[in-house]
Amino acid sequence: MNSPARSKRVSPGKAIRDLCLRLAQLDPTLLADPDAEILDLISETLDCPRISLIQLDKSGGVLRMSTHGFSLENFQSLNEAPVVRRSLEQSKPLLVPDSGLDKQLSEASQLRYRTGCFAVYPVQVQGHTAAVLCLSDLMPDSVEALKKSSADMQLLLAMLGQYCLSARRIPQGSEQPATTLNDDELGTLMRLVEKLDHSLDTRNIFASFCEIAGSLLPMDAMLVIHDSLDDAQHGNIVVQRPLHYDELKREYGGLCSQWERRHSRAISIEDERTSLVGRELVMFEGECPDELRCGSCETFPVFIDNDLFALVLISAEQDVIRDRRRLKLFSILAHHLMLHIKKGLLMMQNQEMQTVDSLTGLYNERQFYKMMEREFDRASRYRVPLCILIVDVDHFRDVNETYGFETGDMLLKEISAIIMENVRSTDFVSRYSGERFVVVLPETHNKNAEILANRLRRFVENNSFFISNTNVFIKVTVSIGVSSYLDHKPANLAQFIEFADTALFFSKRNGRNQVVGYSYVINLMMHDTDNES
Predict the structure, then answer these.
(1) How far is residue 359's CA from residue 409's CA, in Å, rounded to a whole number?
(2) Whole-prediction pTM
(3) Cα gap 488→18, rounded to integer Å
(4) Per-residue pLDDT tens for 233-261?
(5) Residue 141 CB partners (closer than 8 Å, separation 6+)
C-alpha cells in the first residue's frame, strides 16, 4: 500500500484560503465541466491524487458523483461506500491516517485505494448534507495537515455547499446568471480574509466586517447571535445608520426566538452578553418615525461542524435584499467571519489552559494566582516580607479609540518589556487583565516596593511610544497600587490583592501617574475616623 514519493505536501491554512479565493472567481456557466475544474483545483492545492464529490438530495439519495484521478461507473448508492456512510452516520469529518488500525475501514480501503490514508468531509448546507467530499490516497502527514487546517477546510466546504445548492436549483442546460466575482467583489473578499488573518481580537471585528462587507452590500444594521462554546451565546448588534431602539429590539427579539428554538438557550438585547456597536446612531426615546425604521431583513444561518454556530441578520433596502447574487457573496463572507470567531474562542479556551499571555509573553492571570498562592502561603508561614504592585495604564481606552486596538496591543507589549527590564529574576510579572499588570515581589519590604513602583512609573512616563500607522510618538503614564503582607496584614490572598487594588483606585482618583501604597489608604481612613469623633 505504498505510494510513489511526491514533491509537494498538503498546503495548510493560507493555501486553502487562496483556493477559496480562486473558487470564488470561477463562473460555472463558462465551464464545460465545472465539477472537474473544481476538483482539479482542490487536487492541486491539497496534493491529493484521488478526489470524489458525491452530491446528495435532501433524502440522502445520490444525485451525481464527480471524480478526479479515477473513474467509478454505475455508482448509485452510498451502500457501496462504507467509509462515506460511516462519516455521514457520525455527522462529522472522518480523517484516517492509517485504515489498518480499523478492520472494517481496512477491508473497504484495500478494495479501491493504494494507501490507507484518506479523509471524508460531509458538506452541510442549510442544516442538511448536500454533498460529501472524499480525499483518498493521501500521505500520513497530509492527513495531519488537514487536521490542523480544520477551520480553513470549513470555509472550503461552505463554498462547495453553495456551489452544490446552486447547481441543484438551476437545471443543467438552462440559462444561468453570471456568478464570477468582479474586481470590487474579489477585492472585498481579499480585504476581509487579510483583516481576519492578521487579528484574533474580536473586540472590533464585527464593526470592521460591516465596514468591509458594506462596500458591496450596504446595510442598516447587522445582528448576530453566536455560540460562545461555554453552553451560552454572545450577541452583537452593529448599527450603520440612524435607527430607533424599538426597531432593533423587535428584530433582535425575533432572532433570539429562532436561536432559542434551535438551542434551548435564551438571550435578549438587555443581556450583558449582547454588545451594541454604533450606540450613538440609536434613538432610544419617543415614537419611531419612518426614517428610523429597519429596512427589509434577511437571516443567514451559519453551520460549522454540523452544528448551528450562528444566526446573522442584516437589515437593508429592499432592492439590496432582492439581489440574490450579493446575498450569496455575503453568506460566504459571514461564514468566514464566524469561522474566525470560533477560531478565536477556541484559542481563548486554549490560552486559559496555558501559563503565558500570548500578547506580552508574561505569565497570564491563571498562572499568577497559582504562583501567588504559593508565595502567600510561604509569607504566612514564615512571616517573611512580600509585596505586590498592580500597574494600570492611564487612559488606555482613549489610545484604543484614537489609534486602534493594534496600537493598544503594541503599547502593552512595550510597557511589559519596560517592567521586565527593571525587576529582579526572583520577582514575577503577570498580565492581570486588559491593560493591568501585577508584579509580585518576594522578600521585599513595603518601602523598597514603593521605590521600585516609582522607578517603573518614571520609566514609562519618560518613554516615547512610536505609532507606526500615523508616524507619531505618544506619551502614556501608569498608576500603581502597592500592598505589603507584613505592613498591612491581609487575612487571606483575596484581601491582599484587594488592598493593592484599593491603593490603585486612590492613585487614579488623586490624578493618575502616581504610586499609592495601602498605608496611605489606612491613614486616610484613620483621619476620617478622627474627624467624625
Answers:
(1) 7
(2) 0.46
(3) 60
(4) 889 999 999 999 999 999 999 999 888 88
(5) 9, 10
Beta bridge partners of 442: 386
- Could you tell me which of 486, 481, 485 has the C-alpha nearest to residue 503? 481
Nearest residue to 475 (alpha-carbon basis) of 492, 450, 500, 458: 458
Instruction: Provide the pLDDT for residue 487.
Output: 94
Cell of 40: 482539479
Contact 51, 35 (CB under 8 A): no
233 touches 240 (CB < 8 A): no
What are 489-507's pLDDT values in tens digits?
999 999 999 999 999 999 9
C-alpha cell at 174: 438552462
3-state secondary structure 16-75: HHHHHHHHHHCCHHHCCCHHHHHHHHHHHHHCCCEEEEEEECCCCCEEEEEEECCCCCCC
Q: How far apart are CA 220 and CA 236, in angstroms?
A: 14
* pLDDT over 60 (residue 27): yes
Amino acid found at 479: S
Mean pLDDT across the stretch 117-129? 80
72-118 residue pLDDT tens:
665 556 666 677 777 777 778 888 877 665 555 555 444 455 556 88
- β partners of residue 298: 314
**In whole angstroms, what is the distance from residue 442 CA to residue 434 CA?**
24
Structure-block grid coordinates of residue 168: 441543484
Judging by DSSP bridges, how do beta strands 221-227 and 233-239 pair with one another?
antiparallel
pLDDT at 331: 84
Q: Which helix (H) or strand (E) holds 226?
A: strand 221-227
pLDDT in the model for residue 202: 59
What is the per-residue DSSP string for 300-345? EEEEETTEEEEEEEEEE-HHHHT-HHHHHHHHHHHHHHHHHHHHHH
Which SS3 state, helix, strand or coil, does residue 121 take? strand
| Distance from C-alpha of 517 to C-alpha of 170, rounded to nearest angstrom | 73
